[in-house]
Each structure stands twice: as C-alpha cells, then as structure tokens.
Description:
The protein is α+β, with helices and mostly antiparallel strands.
Amino acid sequence: MSDISIPGxxxxxxxxxxxxxxxxxxxxxxxxxxxxxxxxxxxxxxQKISRFSHDIRDTAxxxxxxxxxxxxxxxxxxxxxxxxxxxxxxxxxxxxNISIKNIATADxxxxxxxxxxxxxxxxxxxxxxxxxxxxxNWNGGRYKNFIQQVNKRGNNILHISExxxxxxxxxxxxxxxxxxxxxxxxFADDALNFALENRIIKENDGKALAISVPKKPISxxxxxxxAFAYPVQARQQYTLEYTVQIEEKYPYNEPPxxxxxxxxxxxxxxEKIGSVTYKGIRINNEPSMTDIPNIEIPQAQKPQPQKLxxxxxxxxxxxxxxxxxxxxxxxxxxxxxxxxPQTFSIPLDQYGDIQGIAVHNNNTHKTLTIDSILIxxxxxxxxxxPVHPVSQAQDAAFQFEGITIKRDSNDISDLIPGVTLHLTxxxxxxxxxxxxxxxxxxxxxxxxxxxxxxxxxTEINIATSNQPAVIEEIEYFTDEERKAAKExxxxxxxxxxxxxxxxxxxxxVTNVYRRNxxxxxxxxxxxxxxxxxxxxxxINNAQLRGYLEINEKKLDDALANSMPDIRYLFGYDTNNDRxxxxxxxxxxxxxxxxxxxxxxxxxxxxxxxxxxxxxxxxRIERYDKQLERKEAALQQKYGAMExxxxxxxxxxxxxxxxxxxxxxx
Length: 665
C-alpha cells in the first residue's frame, strides 16, 4: 500500500502538467497579442507616412506662399571688411558703387593718470552726448564707486572704464555710445571741473586758419599756387574747406563790330562829278563836250575782318591739388560743371603733411573764382577740446554713385529702399554692392522638396510591396534603416489608398504647367528634375518606381536665367484673385492636405487602428484574468491531490511499520 501514486502528480510533476494545460488555454490570448502587434506596427507606419506627407505638404506650400524663396535676395560686397549690406525680399535687383571716406565714430576720451586711491568730491556731475544728458548727485567717495554709478545712470549714453597704465596708476576711458558729429561728449556742473582737473579736456585755444585767396578770377588756361603760412601736419587731423565758382567765358576771340563809313555809292557816273551845293543851291557842271564813255568806278574794297585762329575747346575740372611737403601734387576732388558756388571739405590727415594748394585752370572758356579757403580742426568746437582723444565724434562720409553722403550712423537704411548698409571701415577705391536673387536659397528649397518627395515614395513603396528588391535598390539606407525597412516590407500590401495616393503624386510632378505663352519653364523636367523613366535605355527599377532625380547643372542654369518662371512653376494665379491656384506646389498641397489634415484620410486610418488596439488590449486583459483564474484553480486542484496523496502515503507507511512490528513479535 506504500506505493500509492497518481500518474503525473507524484514527485511535483503536476507543475509541468499545469503548464501544458495553460499553454493550450493561452492560444486565443496569444493570437490577440499577435494581432495587437500587427495593429501597432501598422499604426506606426501610417503615422510615419502621415508625418512625411506633412513635411512635403508644408514644403510645397512654402514654394508658392508669400515667403517663397524665389524672391529672397542675396547681397555681395567687393570688400566685406569695410562694407556689407542686407536686403529685404522686395528689394530690386541692382548694383551700385560706394567709396567710404570715414565711418561714423563716437567721442572716446582718455584721462591723465590718477592714483589708485583717488577720490571724487561731492557734487552734481552732468554728462551730455548731443541732446541727451543725465546728472548724478554724488556724495563723494572712491572713483570706482563713481564709475559704477555713472555707468548705471548713463547705460545707453555713456560708459566709463578704468585702464591700468603703470604701477599703481590708472586712467579713465570715457566713451560715448552714440556716433555722429552732432553727438559730442560734453561736461557740465562739477563734471566740467572733474574733466579739466583730470586732463580729459582742456580749453580750446585752437583757431581756424584763413588762407589768403587770389583777388581776381583765375583766367582760362591760367594757374596759381597758394602757400600756407606754415605746413599742416597730418597728425593734426585738420580739415581743408574751400569754395569755388566757375564762370563761363565766350570761347572765341572775335574782332569788334564793323563801323559804318560815308563812302559814296559803288556806281558813280560822270554826270554826278563836279556838282556843288551851297546854302540850298545846287550847281552841276555841264556835261563834258568830249565824248568820254561813262566809267564805272568800283567801291573800294572794305577790309574784311579776319577771323582769328579758332582755339580748340578744352574742359578740365581736375583743377585743385594739394602741395605736399616734398613739393609733389596730390589731386583733390573734381569740380562740378555748374555755375553755382561749390564747397569742398577735405580731411587733410588722409593726404600727409601739406604746405599749400595748386590751381590749374586748364579750361579754354571758363574762369575760376576762389571765394574762401579755411583750415580748421573739425573737433575743436565749443570752448573745450579733448586732451587725449581715442576717437572723436564724426559722421560717416562716403560716395554713393558719385554723390557725397553723410550719416551719423554706420548702419544706413534710408538711402536705398529695402537695403541697409553696414559701414565698418575706410576704402581706398570704389567698392561694389550687388543685390541679386538668392539662387542658393531657392536651390536648397527645391532640393528639400525633392528629398521629401522621394522619402515619402520610399516609405509607400516599402509598405505596399513584398519584394525585397524595393529595399535593396535604396543605396543611402544605413544598416539600422535597412533593418527597419525589412520589418515594414509589405505591412500595408494591397492598400488601395496608398496606391492611389502615390499615383496622383507622380502625375503632379510630371505634369506641364503653363502660366502664359512666354513661360520658358513649364515642368520640373525642364529645370532638371525628373524620374528619367522616359529616357529610353539605361532605366533601372528604382527610376521606374517614381523617384525624382536632379540634374544639378541644368537646375543651376535655370535658376540663374529663369528665376521668375521657376517661381510661377510652383504656384501662379489663373483667375486674377491674387491667390495661387495652379502649379506644382499648389497641386501637391491640394492633393496631400486632405490626407493629412485633422479628420483626413491618414488620421482616420490611425484612429481606426487606435480603436482596434484598445479593443485588442481589453480582450488580452480579459484573457489574462481568465488564464490567471484557470491557473490558480489548477494549482489548487493539483495541490489538493498532492496533499491527499501524501496523507495516503503516510498512512501506508504507518500500516507497513505496524505489520513489521507484528512480525517481529
């Protein structure tokens, strides 16, 4: 009886039996899990296709919207170290010349040396930059605290820095933050004493130097030299200002007008010879008795005024030159051909040391009148001048297409519509600014559209095909992308929505769009973008699947020569409502938008799958609960069976032991 057992239960083997039973019971749950995985995979794939569709939809719209790249402008400078510019989208294509004499600067003054323990006395310190000013009520104290307070109050006007010079000595650098000659730095109240005591400024003892000018006009073909009282050095940064006037003179020498005389008539007859008139009585001689024929006496030939040799007309407006210290001549700006007074302002620091002016009037019929010549320090205005100027306030001065322009800022936006010039340095010659369509931006936008189109078609081809060749022919895939593509291969095989969607996209990118009869670019193929599926030999399967390819040289040529037509290829107005309603970009957007918009085809697909995923998850959850209860019941059932078996085995052992004892007795 001790060998009592239940097949499959004894020795704990009931666990294996339960596992086999549960595996069979889990088949419906496993099928639901497989279905859930398929739904989730399809949902992720639809979302991916929808995301790629969104991308190309938005890119297509950007190619014909107000912000399309075909109206972007690019600006190039022949000297970007001295001159740059920015242009708005509506700026006209143009090129212009600029030469910069000087850029706009602000006042920047350095003080004398001050000790490290220098203290600034109590007072009211007023600082001005042009018409802007501020005052600081200072209670006295260390100069470093004074600097902090000034910088705090004059945040957008003035800034003071300390510069260590030698040992324990420092200097203060006071800088204006506003450029332009009208924005000079000045001091008032106690700040004036502070600036004078620390040798930031000093009293203006400089005087303008008036140069004696010729009293008479300089005659045609005449010349003269005007010497300065003393040489003007370049480091003095003086300015020469002169005013001159041109007067027209008749170019040819003519004799005086002809005078009348009382010579007799040219035809004199003999009958008139010998007559005399006295007190109203006229007596004529008798005709000659001799038969003398009448004689015609010709009038004496009047001397004709001989025209003097005609001079060759000469016009030369390069009349003024500076005389350098070595005696060489340095040409000054040309005069204008006008009778109005002309005034020139020349910064002499650009010409070296100067000792005079030379005037050569190489005109045959113009005189030059010099009204005034003045040499002055342009910075010496008012009662004070800086002692150690680092820079001084001045306007930007430059020539724009030969016209002298001055501005108080180096950023100039009021000269050319839509263009902002940025002056950063002087130039030694005319520099060129060119504003042209930004072909690079347009090219990048077009390439981006092609890339997104091909990426979308790649996902559709992989999802709707069960041929591994679709993946193998994609050369740019990484190993990870190739692995993911294999998992997606054929996941939406036979889906008519994607097949129809793909065919419509292919028709759009191959169609012809004619804005008018003069349109030179009417399709993507004419600008170098095509599937090449119609080129005959050499076609591979990848090309037949609709992927676009770019002929970069052809695209560059089209962008360089036909930018307006390319712009209208992507979107143009057919009904004069000022809204683009046809073109590659318009058609792509109109085709894709119903698929991607809220409530569209792709969102409905993903929403339907999301509902299936929820239902399947619920079903799996119910299966899991049923299986859990089933397994618990089996565990209880077989556990009870094992307990009963153990009791029976114990009873069998006791009986066996009792029998053995009886035998021994």
